[in-house]
Amino acid sequence: MDQFTRDDLKRLVESSGEPAVSIYMPTHRAGRDVRENATRFKNLLKLAYERVGDRFSDNQTLRARLKEAAKLENDDAWWQHQSDGLAMFFSGDHDDRYRVPLKFEEFVAAARRFQVLPLVRLLQGDGRYYILAVSQNRVRLLEGTHYAVEELDPQQLPSNLRSALNIDEYTSSLQQHSTGGPDAAGTMTFHGHGAADMDVQKKDEIQQFFQRIDAALGSYFGSERTPLVFAGVDYLFPIFRDACDYDGLVERSVAGNPDDLTAEQLHQEAWEVVQPLFAQHQNAALERYKMETGGDKALADLPDILRAARQGAIDTLFVAENQRQWCVVDEQSGEVRTAGENADGAEELLNYGAVGTLASGGTVYCLPSERMPDRKHAAALLRFPLPSP
């Protein structure tokens, strides 16, 4: 529903507007269960008020933002248009809401930094990818994760070839490619097996079509490099690849007429394309960690990892999913003291390490506990060895 990009993550990571309230919740897309969305939000917002009151009762700007957000409780139309998960962030300079195809555990925190780890999964190797399904009659952009898919509606994206080229006469010039006579033009489809099957005019129109699509994608994606899978008949993919400037385009496509496929079918076929790429990056990082184990560029001790994160030394950080450990970190000495979540200056340590890693341009992977090196809560590959404390 809402585009969450690396730029959005960067803004959250770099925010210095303490206190920072983070709210995560699972949401229902449709059906009778949609009614639960507003109720769950109301309860979590109440908990956020309590946690702000415990530590930051004098912050009137934040309390005003939470009060404004409470108006969503009665916005039935908004709750009817959800994805699988909702992430919300409030501070003196943030009021951000993301409906994303990732089901979260319920979680509320009021701390010194935004809790970004649950969203990291959207941008890491097993997180998010796009599907561009193209025929002359229909253009669809979908966002998928391993577990879910949803159709997006970028305003800039042309809906079909006619709207892209802004002409009404193109069907008559393509009659020889239709599946029937003049009355069948509305159901025409691309077919053939190469450029030899198309006249020059047809190929020029397709190239212009794809250039318009590429321009729309460039505007929508910005600096994002999330994998993009093309779905369309075989001979179109090389033409699109030549027209496409997006660095995230995957070299393998989903072949066939995508008009015949539902969103769920496209999701299944596209996942088979991107999953090996995702696994390749993660597995390579884990193998590098294994090779460095015992040396001075592999860390599994949490205090050392936090020190490395503060110094910008972490190249790749692995953290276990759904694990939290609240402590107070002395920024001067690096000392870590166990503390309650509501203690003054409390930090969630895995999030603390992730924020430091991301802020210095490193990579963070959230992994199931069984995939973590040595079953630790955190492990790190360093750019350079840490100096002695």
Helix content: 25-40%
What is the global morphology? globular
Sheet with most strands: strand arrangement:
7-6-5-8-9
> Which class do the helix and strand fractions yield?
alpha+beta
Tell me which oligomeric state these chains represent. single chain
Order of helices and strands: HEHHHEEEHEEEHHHEHEHEHEEEEHEE
Cα(first) to Cα(last) distance is: 46 Å
What does this structure look like?
It is a single chain. This protein is α+β, with helices and mostly antiparallel strands. Helix content is 36%, strand content 21%. It is built from twelve helices and 16 strands. It has a five-stranded mixed β-sheet with strand order 7-6-5-8-9. It has a four-stranded antiparallel β-sheet with strand order 3-2-1-4, sandwiched between helices. The longest helix is centred in the last third of the chain and has 30 residues, at 263-292. The radius of gyration is 24 Å and the shape is globular. The chain starts with 5 loop residues before the first helix and ends in a 7-residue tail after the last strand.
